[in-house]
Amino acid sequence: MRILTPREKTLYTFLLVLLAYNINAQDQNITLNQDPKFEQLLNDKRKINASISVNESYKIQIFSGKSEEAKKTLSDFKQEFKNIDATIIFNTPNYKVMVGNFKSRIEAERNLAEIKKRYKNVFLIKPSK
Question: Quick one: pLDDT at residue 53?
């Protein structure tokens, strides 16, 4: 490493200040040209998103356990109850068979009574708010 002489230090400092003086930052004036329909579309999208219900349906859990048993339970359920949706959800460390997509608690409880006749460890899952 080389040590600078006082004259070199002064020269480099002067050059640095001179170069830094000419540096310009970006202008803060931004002009945005936006189609007026864009705001209307954005508001319409917000209304649609607000009306979509996420996790606002009741489900019934009919099984929780190992993967192979969950697949068999799902297959058996789909054969017996063809008009009710069913799926497997992995929730560490178990696979859960969830059935239904019921809009109201009354509808879910009616189906729960029917499903309880066939499956023993059955319970209703409330929607999370």
Answer: 57
